[in-house]
Amino acid sequence: MSLLIVDRLSKNYSKSIRALDNISFCSTEGECIGIVGESGSGKSTLARVLLGLEPYKEGNITFDGKPIAPKNRTLLREYRKNVQMIFQDTTSTLNPKLPIWKSLLEPLSNFKEISPSYLGKEGSSEREIAEVLLEMVGLDKHMVDRYPGELSGGQKQRVSIARAISIEPSLLVCDEPTASLDVTVQVQILHLLKELQKKNNMTILFISHDIRAVTFLCEKVIVLKNGSIVDQFGLEELYHRERHPYTKALIKAAEID
Ligand SMILES: Nc1ncnc2c1ncn2[C@@H]1O[C@H](COP(=O)(O)OP(=O)(O)OP(=O)(O)O)[C@@H](O)[C@H]1O
Ligand SMILES: [Mg+2]
C-alpha cells in the first residue's frame, strides 16, 4: 500500500506565481524518492506543503490513508508524529542558544506519547536519550553539552538528522540537506541517511538540485521544472532513451553518463 499519495497538487503564491502545477506521485513504505530540479522549480514549496506547513487549495495529499489538510489540526498533529524534515540550513532547526541535548529532545517532548524502540524499558534521563541519539548518527556522546556554534557544518547536520529520527518517523523529508557541506562531508551524510533508512525502514523524500546525490540514495526519481513534473522514473531507467530532454541535460551537466 502507498504510504504517501500526492494527487494533482497545485499551489499558487499569487496569480502570477504557480509554484506547483498538477503534481502527482506516490511512495510506498521504505522507499527513497529523489526530487530533483533547478532553483525555483518548486522543490521547497513541495516539501513545505507536504509537511502541512503551507496551505494548498488544489489537489489532495494522503498519508497512510488519511488526508493531510493544513486546517485540520488534530489530523495534522497525528501526521507530525510520523513525519520529520531536515533542512539545508541547520540554523532553522538548531537554536544557537540551546545546548545540543535540548535541541535533540524537542520532537520527543512535543510527543510525549511516543516511546521509541531504541530506548530500553527502564526510564532513561533526557541526557542519556540525547547521547543515544548522537551515537546513532556517528557523533561522540560528549557533544550533548556543546552549542551549535561549536560544531562543524557536517556535525550540525548530523545533529539535525538525529533530532529528526528521534521520534522514528515513517517519512523523512530532506530539503537539500547536503547543499551547504563540502563534498566529502556530503558523501558521509548521504551514507548515513542510506544506513538509517535501511535500519528504520523509513520512506525518504530527498530533495536536491544534484542528480548525483539523488541517484546515489534514491530508487525513484522525480524531475521538477517550473513547478511541474517533467519526468518520473525508477533508477534503472536513468539512461533510457525516453528520458525527458531536461533529465538528459541534468545527467550531462553532472557528467554521470
Ligand atoms: N513565500 C513565497 N511567496 C511567493 N513566492 C514564493 C514563495 N516561496 C517561493 N516562491 C516562489 O515559488 C517558486 C518555487 O520556489 P521554491 O523555493 O519552491 O523553489 P526551489 O526549487 O526550492 O528552489 P531552490 O533550489 O533555489 O531552493 C519560485 O518562483 C519562488 O520565487
Ligand atoms: Mg529550495
Automatic annotation (TrEMBL):
Residue ranges occupied by any ABC transporter domain in the UniProt entry: 4-251
GO terms classed as biological process: transmembrane transport
GO molecular function terms listed in the Swiss-Prot or TrEMBL record: ATP binding; ATP hydrolysis activity
Keyword Protease recorded: no
Keywords, comma-separated and alphabetical: ATP-binding, Nucleotide-binding, Transport
Record bears the keyword Transport: yes
CDD domains referenced in this protein's UniProt entry, alphabetically: ABC_NikE_OppD_transporters (cd03257)
PANTHER family associated with the record: ABC TRANSPORTER, ATP-BINDING PROTEIN, TRANSPORT ATP-BINDING PROTEIN
Protein name: Peptide ABC transporter ATP-binding protein
Lineage: Bacteria, Bacillati, Bacillota, Bacilli, Bacillales
